[in-house]
Design a protein that fits this description.
two-stranded antiparallel sheet, 3 domains, N-(1-d-carboxylethyl)-l-norvaline Dehydrogenase, domain 2, 457 residues, 19 helices, binds 6-phosphogluconic acid, Single alpha-helices involved in coiled-coils or other helix-helix interfaces, single chain, globular, Rossmann fold, alpha/beta
């Protein structure tokens, strides 16, 4: 029987421990918090200990310790303590949303002591952890081979195949998880914008909005996040009886993965403007100047209508663009850091268990299987034709939102991204001319190689 030490019996840790126990693994659980230990001990299959030393003592060598604590300081301190207690050949698996550069640093640092450090992206929330998450593993290939049996056993399944895979050394897994989260930011923002158009632009009631959202997720546009949207739109607040989202503050939180993805994209030179808009939309939602701007500028005049199918098309097209940008980011990261740049693999792993699970990933996986070097997900034949079909409604939606003063950073910037990519000759020759005009930065010419200057005298 495989024995695993699990540190962190919070919501995710306890659920994953129970999932491991379901697969007949022996799980030794430790949490600093006595209340969390008591809750974990309610499941008699788990061995709960009150100290790290006790846990290490119960693990057969080579030991495997799975960290299910928050990213940042908790992972840092648990890793520091384990460093003193573990022996060469042992392994630490970090199942948190850790910053990928931290994972690289920890991998190098632990390697000096002979301990394998594995960054593991775990997606799917509590339900996923309990019933089957999507797992994105980094670390050495040999390390992955060692833990693969139990990773595959606990993972979600799509078409009978486990949604667990290896994405390259050190931070390969955490980087793919970060890209997953950045796409998640984009898709969630796109859905939020579409709901706002229904409510503020078209003035629909909540039951009608729920019906519209059911249409958005019909057939091959089905996704977990759209199912969740339908659920939310049908819910009322227990205390007031009002629709649930009416009583929730519009200030969105974020734990960092979205911003890290944008930072990485900037450093690798990959354009992910739509994902960046989604991160900034959350930042803006909490910005103090909103109140003053609302008071001074008020609501704009509204005119014109919108076909309901237009909005669904806009949402689906914007969703495709979010995925496309995320895949471009994974490819760039893999090229820079020697990770696995097989995008079909990421699409396959995300088909079940994770927050991004969606029917469209079947088509994306097939597209990258057929053409691994596909320049951009949007040019895959089936996807390009979907984009073309959605385009008229997408444009009308963006125009409608603009004329009604409804902010649609993701629906709009995804369209701008497509337009920028598809324009034969972009607007940027003008930028090059200005750069040369004020700073003698030089420009390339269309008719001969090399850098050139205009005569500005
Ligand atoms: C998942 C989620 C999960 C979590 C994010 C949310 O894949 O299960 O992405 O990791 O929801 O941490 O991040 P924010 O707090 O930044 O929205």
């Amino acid at each position: 029987m495989t024995t695993i030490g699990l540190i962190g019996a919070g919501v995710m840790g306890r659920a994953l421990a129970q999932n491991l126990a379901d697969r007949n693994l022996d799980v030794i659980v430790f949490d600093r918090d006595a209340a969390a230990r008591s809750r974990a001990a309610e499941d008699r299959r788990l061995t709960v200990v009150s100290g790290l030393g006790a846990m290490i003592g119960k693990l057969p060598a080579p030991r495997t310790v799975l960290l299910m604590v928050n990213a940042g300081a908790p992972v840092e301190s648990a890793t520091g303590e384990l460093r003193m207690l573990l022996a060469p050949g042992d392994m630490i698996v970090d199942g948190g949303n850790s910053f990928w550069r931290d994972t690289q640093r920890r991998t190098t640092d632990l390697a000096k002591t002979g301990v394998d450090f594995v960054g593991l992206g775990v997606s799917g929330g509590e339900e996923g952890a309990r019933r089957g998450p999507a797992l994105m593993c980094g670390g050495t290939e040999a390390g992955y081979a060692r833990i693969r049996p139990w990773l595959e056993a606990v993972a979600a399944r799509a078409d009978g195949k486990p949604c667990a895979d290896w994405f390259g050394p050190d931070a390969g897994g955490h980087f793919v998880k970060m890209a997953h989260n950045a796409i998640e930011y984009g898709v969630m923002q796109a859905i939020a914008e579409a709901v706002q158009i229904l409510q503020n632009g078209l003035g629909l009631s909540f039951p009608d909005m729920k019906r519209e959202a059911e249409g958005w997720g019909a057939g091959n546009r089905a996704s977990y996040l759209l199912e969740l949207t339908q659920d939310i739109l049908g819910r009322s607040d227990r205390e007031t009886g009002k629709p649930l989202i009416e009583v929730i503050s519009d200030r969105a939180g974020q734990k960092g993965t979205g911003g890290w993805a944008i930072d990485a994209a900037l450093s690798f030179g990959v354009a992910v403007p739509t994902l960046a808009e989604a991160v900034f939309a959350r930042t803006l939602s909490g910005s103090p100047e909103r109140k003053d701007v609302v008071e001074r500028l008020g609501a704009p005049a509204r005119k014109g209508g919108l076909e309901r199918t237009d909005l669904g098309d806009a949402l689906f097209a914007a969703t495709l663009v979010c995925y496309a940008q995320g895949f471009q980011l994974i490819r760039a990261g893999a090229a820079q850091h020697g990770w696995v740049g097989d995008l079909a693999r990421a699409a396959r792993v995300w088909r079940a268990g994770c927050i991004l699970r969606a029917h469209l990933l079947n088509d994306v996986a097939s597209a990258y299987e057929r053409t691994p070097a596909l320049a951009n997900m949007l040019v895959a034949p089936g996807i390009a034709s979907t984009i073309a079909a959605c385009e008229p409604g997408w444009r009308r939606t963006v125009a409608f939102a603009a004329s009604h003063g409804i902010a649609t950073p993701v629906l709009s910037s995804s369209l701008a991204y497509l337009d920028a990519l598809r324009t034969q000759r972009g607007a940027t020759a003008m930028i090059q001319a200005m750069r040369d005009g004020f700073g003698a930065h030089g420009f390339e010419r269309v008719d001969k190689p090399g850098m050139h200057h205009a005569d500005w005298s």
